[in-house]
Write a structure and sequence with these properties.
This protein has about 450 residues and is an alpha/beta fold. Helix content is about 40%, strand content about 20%. It is elongated.
C-alpha cells in the first residue's frame, strides 16, 4: 500500500506525511498533557553556531524570549526513518543537520515558577533525493509566542545589525568594509546616486504614501565590467547600515542560481524588517530569463511586491544593459532611474586610482602614464598596478620591503594587459554564435591610447 502511494504522490508530500505521522505516534502520543501544534519551521534554529551563542549570557543578555523564557539546550533523539546526520563544510564547520532534536526552554532568572520548563520537537529531513532539507516543529500551543521569539532571536544572532544579510549564496551575512570615500569615480555622479538614495528614505517614502503607492524605488547601475559598480554598492551598504537601515544582498552563487524566488523572499523579509531597507541585486540580467521575466516585471511594477511602510530601495547592476528587455528599461516605473557608471574619464581620476592601488610603492613619475589609462575601467587600472608590483618582486634577490616599481615597468604592464584585451576581442569576434552583448565593441572603444 505504501509503495502504491509513493508512486501516485509526490515524494515531498509523502515524506511530510511520514514525518507528521511519526511525530504524532511517538512524540504527541506520549505527552497528552499538552495541546500540540505541528508547523513548518525555519532552518536557522538548526544552526549549532547560533545555538552555541545562547550560552553566552553576557553577549545575549537582551535575548530573553516571550513570556520571560530563555533557550536552555538541545539534544538529538532517534528518528527511525531519518537518523541524525551532520554535514560539514571543508573547513570543519557544520553546514546542516538532519534528524530529530529536542529543544528545552526554561523560565528566566526573574520568573517565579521553576516547573514551567517545556520542550519543542524539531525535525529536519530531506524532501527528496536532493540536498534540500525541510523542517517541522511540534510546539505546545500556548508556547507558540516563545517559539516565535526564539526564531527571531536566532535571526538576530546570525544576522547582526552591522552586517549585510545574504539571501542565497554560501554565506549568511558579511560586513561591508568599503566606504564612500574609498570609491574613486566621478564625484558628481557618486554624490548624485547617494543623494537619490538618501532623499528617497528621508522624503520620498512619505511622497509615495501620499500618492497611495508602494514606497518601493528601483535604481539600475549600468556599465562595462570593472567600472566600480560593486564597490559603490558595498559603500552604499556601509552607509545604509550606519543609518540603521536593513541591508540585503541577493546572491546567485549557489545551486539555485539566479532564481526569482530569492527576490520574492528578500522583499518579504524587507516587509517584516520594521525599518528602511536597501536591497542589492547584482547582474539583474541573469535573473531576467524567459521563464522568470514576467514574474520579475510584476515585482518591479509593484503589483506583486511586498510593502514595507518604511521604504525599500532596490539597487540592481548590469554589465550588459542591452541584454535587458526593453520592457524593463524603457517602461516608466519599473526602473525609476538608470545611472551609467563609465570607465575612468579624465586624468585626475586615473591618478587617484594609481596612487590608491600603488600604495607605498607610489612614485610621482607614475603620473606620466595616467593619460594613457583614461577610458579604461578601474579594475583594469588596478590590474596594471598589481601586475607591475608582482613583476617587481618576482626576483628572489629583491627585498619585498624595499621594492621600487619604475615607470617603465608600469608601462610594460599596461602594454602586456592591453595585448591580452586585443587577443580576447579577436577570440570573441571569431565566435559568430556567441552572445557578447556588445562587449567587444565597447572594449575596442577603450583599447586605444
Amino acid at each position: 500500500m505504501l509503495r502504491k502511494t509513493a508512486q501516485s504522490t509526490p515524494l515531498t508530500e509523502l515524506r511530510v506525511a511520514q514525518v507528521t505521522r511519526w511525530i504524532k505516534e511517538t512524540w504527541i502520543a506520549q505527552r497528552p498533557e499538552h495541546d500540540w501544534v505541528i508547523a513548518g519551521s525555519n532552518n536557522i534554529c538548526m544552526d549549532e553556531s547560533v545555538l552555541a551563542k545562547f550560552s553566552d549570557d553576557e553577549a545575549l543578555e537582551d535575548e530573553v524570549l516571550a513570556d520571560d523564557y530563555r533557550y536552555q539546550s538541545s539534544h538529538s533523539i532517534q528518528m527511525d526513518q531519518y537518523p541524525v546526520v551532520y554535514n560539514w563544510f571543508g573547513d570543519g564547520t557544520l553546514s546542516q543537520r538532519s534528524g530529530a532534536f529536542v529543544y528545552t526552554f526554561a523560565p528566566s532568572d526573574d520568573a517565579d515558577d521553576d516547573n514551567m520548563t517545556f520542550e519543542v520537537l524539531m525535525t529536519s529531513y530531506y524532501v527528496n533525493d536532493s540536498q534540500h532539507l525541510s523542517h517541522l516543529a511540534c510546539i505546545p500551543r500556548d508556547k507558540m509566542p516563545v517559539w516565535s521569539s526564539f526564531i527571531n532571536a536566532c535571526q538576530r544572532i546570525r544576522n547582526p545589525k552591522k552586517s549585510v544579510n545574504v539571501v542565497g549564496g554560501n554565506q549568511t551575512n558579511y560586513d561591508p568594509r568599503v566606504k564612500l570615500d574609498d570609491v574613486i569615480m566621478d564625484e558628481e555622479l557618486k554624490q548624485t546616486i547617494l543623494g537619490d538614495v538618501d532623499r528617497f528614505f528621508r522624503r520620498g517614502v512619505g511622497i509615495y504614501k501620499k500618492m497611495n503607492l508602494n514606497p518601493f524605488r528601483k535604481i539600475l547601475l549600468a556599465g562595462v565590467p570593472g567600472t566600480g559598480k560593486t564597490m559603490l554598492c558595498n559603500a552604499l551598504a556601509h552607509w545604509a547600515i550606519e543609518q540603521d537601515y536593513k541591508v540585503f544582498y541577493i546572491s546567485g552563487a549557489d545551486a539555485r542560481g539566479a532564481n526569482f524566488f530569492k527576490i520574492q523572499q528578500t522583499l518579504a523579509m524587507s516587509a517584516n524588517a520594521n525599518r528602511p531597507c536597501l536591497i542589492m541585486l547584482e547582474e539583474i540580467d541573469a535573473f531576467l530569463n524567459d521563464k522568470q521575466k514576467s514574474m520579475i516585471l510584476n515585482v518591479l511594477d509593484g503589483v506583486e511586491s511586498f510593502e514595507n511602510e518604511y521604504g525599500t530601495l532596490l539597487i540592481a547592476t548590469t554589465n550588459y544593459p542591452e541584454a535587458i528587455d526593453d520592457r524593463v528599461l524603457k517602461r516608466p516605473g519599473r526602473l525609476d532611474r538608470i545611472y551609467i557608471v563609465p570607465p575612468a574619464q579624465d586624468k585626475a581620476i586615473v591618478e587617484q586610482m594609481l596612487e590608491c592601488y600603488m600604495g607605498e610603492m607610489w612614485q610621482d613619475e607614475h603620473r606620466k602614464i595616467a593619460k594613457r589609462l583614461v577610458g579604461y575601467p578601474g579594475a583594469f587600472i588596478r590590474e596594471v598596478c598589481v601586475f607591475a608590483m608582482t613583476q617587481a618582486v618576482d626576483d628572489d634577490s629583491v627585498d619585498e620591503d624595499n621594492v621600487h616599481v619604475s615607470l617603465a615597468l608600469l608601462e610594460e604592464s599596461f602594454e602586456c594587459l592591453k595585448t591580452q584585451i586585443k587577443a580576447r576581442d579577436a577570440l570573441i569576434s571569431q565566435n559568430p554564435n556567441g552572445r557578447d552583448f556588445g562587449f567587444a565593441a565597447r572594449a575596442n572603444d577603450i583599447s586605444g591610447d
